[in-house]
Design brief:
By secondary structure, this protein is mainly alpha-helical. It has helices spanning 2-8, 18-43, 54-60, 71-83, 90-101, 127-137, 153-156, 162-166, and strands spanning 105-109, 113-121, 144-149.
Length: 178
Amino acid sequence: MYKDRMISYLPSYERKSKVINDVLTPIDLEFKNKDIDIDDLEKQLSIDTATWGLVIYEEESNIKTDITKSYEERRSVIKSKTRGNGKVDAKLIKMVVDAWTNGNVEVGFNGKLDIKFNSIYGIPSNLEDLRKALDDIKPAHLSIIYKFAYLLIKDIHNVMTLNDIQNTKLNKFAGGEV
């Protein structure tokens, strides 16, 4: 790509020169490598696409880096920490919880915080991180009730095939274990 462009600027009698081609080939490769580096660097500018840059976001948010967690779990912790600033109300709690669940959560208040997960069956894999994030932002006197969705017989009867059921983890069903 770059090599062809550079060659196009040369006089026609030099375009087929082996020496010129031999010189421009490694230059072309270097430009391609720089493009890859730039693309990777641009990905680090967003929490949603960052990989090695997550460490920087975690340092800025005073979050201990845990490389045993997936990128998605680490991103959720960072997002909740950055969203968890301001007056604590159901809207703020929902924003923090949405960082873990992609937005399908109901948050209510009846003397206690009620958090109902609607889009995830079973207990979310990183619930402990969510609990820590909520503990950081909620008033200490408030308790939290977590409500989880599970697959019930009515959800699978005449809806899921036997193969679908066999491929669904047991912890997604009411009464199931990991």
